[in-house]
């Protein structure tokens, strides 16, 4: 059953020289209880996409077009008050990248969990506190620590407390923005497991935002690869990991260690994310793509379906065997003159602060 | 280290600072230009009278005896006799000091209440017309000279509109009540207090406003503010309970310092409004070589600064759980 249905969403940032198309024509739908990964480099627009869903965008950002249907409610049309009462935290909560900074330092963690519970629900403080303690217990944190201040927690502990906060109202959707990048690997794994367990228990859906392929491969049902403000490839997790068709996905896969392959060589994608201020037609990955052809520079690729919800935006997605084979070689990705033959490269992109 | 141990240590520190301060004061006053005895000797005294006076003041004793005597006197609140008023210093100074506390205290409370609220809203509505206008108003207030603000207020509210009296603390001929409340709580007194307190408030307003605004801008960038918004809490809660609450921390220290300084009174405000406070009294005392009075004034003011810093430290610990009691 569909919980969230995003259609042709365009979230732009105003810049001095035009619109920064941080999310450009994105469609994505998520079922109840499902976990979807949004993978991409910083500046790809993945965080903007997530924040559009609870309208937590900076002042210079605007949803210019498209719709966000959350469980039958059009989020883009809600008043601020309706948004606060009906959507925020009670239905959609979030886990920030650095949990330590996600808590107000001058109140105890317990006070902050109680604050949000009692604001949204007709619950007494004592009951809310009891719930916070139970959540702590479920997450493997000593319940007595609800009375501690955020700075008294270790990184992993703070992250668990943040998960407790995020799940306090049993939301239908949790937006997790790089929830474990600040932690070391062992703790990372354990926390991801805990998130999964609780999420399944509550039947909450989750959007996991990350630049790390290995995180999504372990936790997500489906993965959407985001590049230049667009979802360039989406499929179930296994397909994205084992059988991707988009050159960018292939490149991303190279850049992260594969647990099953010991002597795999890590290869990174040369170049930087594209300038999203009023981009020209053509594939946005073309300047960095080792497989770019004439057509790629002129025609923006449309999503092409490859069955089972697998969609790819690439002109050469049909040549999957060739692409996969070449993409595994290091020579393919060395920085080369990838610009169009007859034209000089456009001036380097202006630095625009995206909210990722 | 627990809170109690921290407070105990801080009290010990307070005592040591206090001792250092009053020893310094002793040394300073004995290093005053000229022979210390000359200040106490009236012209036209015979040498015998002179000797007698010096002995009376204990100035023929060795320095350490003088020091012990000095400590004993200060601790018992005995500051000696004023040369000018011929009254015990303590009687003169306590009244002046209370007058100043009431005036400057009122000014500071108004300035900090308005400044903190105003600054918080300015930071919250960043880049709005409110913020820009607020900065301009604040900067004007900050760069206006004290006497000018006072004179403008006087001209408008006292001379032109006639709403408030132009000088002094009470209407001449009015009953002077005995108790503190009768003295400082009467309607007549409050009417006299209004203009000088407002002048002080305007002068003090800029610091808390600008500081609050800039700290707010920092705090609003913090991740937790975004989380509080995502939690669906009303804007008011996020603004006051979280953003402003965090931004107020640096203000505490500044406020303590400002209060300490303000207790010296403002010579300018006291002169413009003819307010019998510490500032003018101290200038008079120094000009007239009224050694005991000046000494007592310095002692009181220094003590207030030390105590205010102590209070600020304790308040800070109370307000910010992150403070380590190292
Ligand atoms: S469309 Fe062309 S440039 Fe873009 S990813 Fe595919 S092959 Fe590369």
TrEMBL record, chain A:
Signal peptide residue numbers: none
Superkingdom classification of source: Archaea
Main localization category: membrane
GO molecular function: ATP binding; ATP hydrolysis activity
A single cellular component GO annotation: plasma membrane
Domain annotation ABC transporter: ranges: 1-253
Biased composition (Basic and acidic residues): 323-343
Localization, UniProt: Cell membrane
Membrane topology listed for this record: Peripheral membrane protein
Keyword RNA-binding listed: no
Family matches, as Pfam families: ABC_tran, oligo_HPY
Keywords: ATP-binding, Cell membrane, Membrane, Nucleotide-binding, Transport
Keyword Nucleotide-binding: yes
GO biological process: peptide transport
Ranges of compositional bias, category Acidic residues: 344-356
Region (Disordered): 323-356
Protein's name in the database: ABC transporter ATP-binding protein
Organism: Natronococcus pandeyae
TrEMBL record, chain B:
Entries under CDD domains matching the protein: TM_PBP2
Entry membrane topology: Multi-pass membrane protein
Keywords, alphabetical: Cell membrane, Membrane, Transmembrane, Transmembrane helix, Transport
Domain of life: Archaea
One GO cellular component term noted in the UniProt record for this chain: plasma membrane
Biological-process GO terms, alphabetical: transmembrane transport
Compartment list: Cell membrane
Membrane-spanning residues: 12-32, 101-125, 146-164, 193-211, 248-273, 293-319
Domain named ABC transmembrane type-1: residues: 97-312
Predominant cellular place of this UniProt entry's protein: membrane
Family, similarity comment: Belongs to the binding-protein-dependent transport system permease family.
Name of the protein in its database record: Peptide ABC transporter permease
């Amino acid at each position: 059953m569909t919980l969230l249905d995003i259609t042709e969403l365009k979230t732009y940032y105003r810049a001095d020289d035009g619109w920064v198309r941080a999310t450009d024509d994105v469609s994505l739908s998520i079922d109840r209880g499902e976990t979807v990964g949004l993978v991409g480099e910083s500046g790809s627009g993945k965080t903007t996409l997530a924040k559009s869903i609870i309208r937590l965008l900076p002042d210079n950002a605007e949803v210019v077009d498209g719709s966000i249907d959350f469980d039958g409610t059009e989020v883009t049309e809600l008043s601020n008050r309706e948004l606060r009462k009906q959507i925020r935290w009670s239905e959609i909560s979030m886990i920030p990248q650095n949990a330590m900074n996600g808590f107000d330092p001058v109140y105890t963690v317990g006070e902050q969990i109680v604050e949000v519970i009692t604001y949204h629900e007709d619950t007494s403080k004592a009951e809310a506190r009891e719930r916070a303690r139970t959540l702590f217990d479920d997450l493997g944190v000593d319940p007595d620590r609800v009375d501690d201040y955020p700075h008294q927690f270790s990184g992993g502990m703070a992250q668990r407390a943040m998960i407790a906060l995020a799940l306090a109202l049993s939301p239908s959707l949790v937006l997790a923005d790089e929830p474990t990048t600040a932690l070391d690997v062992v703790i990372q794994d354990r926390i991801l497991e805990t998130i999964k367990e609780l999420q399944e228990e509550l039947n909450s859906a989750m959007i996991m935002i990350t630049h790390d392929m290995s995180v999504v491969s372990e936790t997500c049902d489906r993965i959407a690869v985001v590049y230049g403000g667009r979802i360039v490839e989406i499929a179930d997790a296994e397909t994205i990991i084992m059988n991707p068709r988009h050159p960018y996905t292939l490149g991303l896969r190279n850049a992260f260690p594969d647990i099953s392959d010991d002597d795999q060589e890590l290869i990174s994608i040369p170049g930087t994310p594209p300038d999203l201020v009023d981009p020209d037609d053509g594939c946005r990955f073309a300047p960095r793509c080792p497989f770019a052809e004439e057509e790629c520079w002129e025609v923006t690729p449309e999503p092409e379906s490859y069955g089972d919800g697998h969609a790819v935006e690439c002109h050469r997605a049909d040549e999957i065997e060739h692409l996969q084979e070449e993409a595994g070689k290091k020579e393919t990705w060395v920085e080369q003159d990838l610009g169009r033959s007859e034209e000089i490269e456009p001036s380097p992109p202006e630095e625009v602060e995206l909210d990722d | 280290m627990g809170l109690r141990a921290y407070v105990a240590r801080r009290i010990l520190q307070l005592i040591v600072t206090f001792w250092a301060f009053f020893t310094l004061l002793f040394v300073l006053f004995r290093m005053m230009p000229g022979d210390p005895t000359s200040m106490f000797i009236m012209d036209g005294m015979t040498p015998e009278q002179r000797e007698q006076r010096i002995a009376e003041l204990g100035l023929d004793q060795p320095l350490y005896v003088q020091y012990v005597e000095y400590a004993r006197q200060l601790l018992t609140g005995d500051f000696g006799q004023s040369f000018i008023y011929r009254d015990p210093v303590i009687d003169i100074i306590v009244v002046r000091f209370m007058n100043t506390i009431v005036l400057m205290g009122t000014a500071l409370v108004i300035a900090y209440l308005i400044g903190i609220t105003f600054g918080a809203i300015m930071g919250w509505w960043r880049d709005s017309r409110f913020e820009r206008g607020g900065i301009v108003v604040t900067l004007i207030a900050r760069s206006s000279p004290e006497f000018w603000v006072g004179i403008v207020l006087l001209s408008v509210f006292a001379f032109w509109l006639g709403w408030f009296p132009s000088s002094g603390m009470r209407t001449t001929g009015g009953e002077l009540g005995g108790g503190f409340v009768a003295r400082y709580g009467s309607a007549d007194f409050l009417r006299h207090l209004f203009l000088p307190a407002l002048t002080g408030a305007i002068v003090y307003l800029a610091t808390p406003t600008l500081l609050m605004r800039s700290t707010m801008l920092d705090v609003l960038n913090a991740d937790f503010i975004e989380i509080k918004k995502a939690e669906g809490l009303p804007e008011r809660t996020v603004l006051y309970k979280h953003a402003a609450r965090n931004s107020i921390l640096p203000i505490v220290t500044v406020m303590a310092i400002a209060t300490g300084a303000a207790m010296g009174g403002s010579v300018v405000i006291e002169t413009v409004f003819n307010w019998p406070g510490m500032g003018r009294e101290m200038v008079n005392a120094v000009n007239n070589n009224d050694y005991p009075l000046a000494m007592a004034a310095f002692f009181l003011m220094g003590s207030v600064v030390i105590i205010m810093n102590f209070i600020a430290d304790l308040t800070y610990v109370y307000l910010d759980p992150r403070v380590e009691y190292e």
